[in-house]
Write a structure and sequence with these properties.
The chain is mainly α. Helix 1 packs antiparallel against helix 2, helix 5 runs antiparallel to helix 6 and helix 7 runs antiparallel to helix 8. The chain is flat. It starts with a helix and ends in a 10-residue tail after the last helix.
Length: 274
């Protein structure tokens, strides 16, 4: 079961690359717009395979006698992160019908999975402190929040690269601007839930709700950056290029919170030994 899960993870990784190329081709080559439709169909199928990989890994952990959700190390978190990115993007595509976004969003899922393939995929027993249902709630909400911010960053990059900032009142520019805002709101709500569930988990595991662990500190910094973005939108009326740049800065902070803290700084959340 574990071997099949790992095989599916490899296949899914390069499928995301192919899908990203299809989305890009469907956008750039106008007569080949059918490529984007094929990409959407392929993305749905790949998501099924990606889900199967995660579920099989979960079942394999029970088969090995460990019995835990597949969120315990950097490899597993990256696989789940790639899944959340693909799911949130697909929801947005279904909602808007704009397949061009896939050329910017799907590569994020590919890079997350590609990095995962460089790591040890072995299923290992959980540390005692991680044996909690709060861990599942914490990881799911945090990574869905990260994915919301990731798709927002992809939308922001699309806004800047396609020149929408030159015509901020155009229909497509306004649509992208609103999508950037909506995905940030979704990410912010989920990150807030992730911080709350993480605090409850920390209290049950270590007897304190907040210990200023590097990951906790940078999660708070990330939360404050996106809170400032939303404040600027609500109170100062920031739109367009300002919000797009702000979103990219925020996602840069998300990446440091995830990778930089995990790999460079020691703490309760560190995956450096994984």
């Amino acid at each position: 079961m574990e071997a099949l899960s790992n095989t599916l993870a490899v296949a899914v990784t390069f499928a995301y690359l192919g899908i990203a190329v299809l989305y890009l081709g469907g956008w750039i080559i106008k007569p080949a717009a059918v490529l984007a439709k094929v990409a959407t169909l392929a993305l749905g199928l790949v998501l099924v395979a990606h889900t199967a990989s995660i579920v099989l890994r979960w079942l394999a952990s029970y088969q090995l006698g460990f019995g835990h959700a597949p969120f315990s190390n950097l490899f597993e978190s990256l696989v789940f992160f790639g899944w959340t990115l693909a799911v949130i993007y697909l929801v947005i595509e279904i909602k808007t019908g704009d397949k061009r976004i896939g050329a910017f969003a799907v590569p994020l899922a590919f890079f997350a999975m590609l990095y995962a393939l460089k790591l040890d995929p072995a299923i290992k027993p959980l540390l005692p402190a991680l044996k909690s249902n709060w861990l599942i709630a914490h990881v799911i909400t945090c990574f869905l929040g990260y994915a919301g911010f990731g798709v927002s960053a992809a939308l922001s990059l699309m806004y800047l690269v396609t020149g929408k900032a030159k015509d901020p009142q155009g229909h497509k520019a306004l649509l992208l601007d609103d999508l950037i805002y909506q995905t940030v709101v979704v990410g912010f709500i989920l990150l807030t839930a992730g911080i709350v569930t993480g605090s409850i988990w920390a209290n049950s595991a270590w007897g304190t709700y907040w210990s200023w662990d590097p990951k906790e500190t940078w999660s708070l910094i990330t939360w404050l950056i996106y809170a400032a973005l939303l404040h600027s939108r609500y109170m100062r009326g920031w739109h367009g290029q300002r919000i797009a740049v702000f979103s990219l800065v925020g996602f840069g902070c998300v990446l440091f919170t995830y990778f930089g803290v995990n790999l460079l700084l020691s703490g309760l959340h560190s995956y450096a030994a994984s």
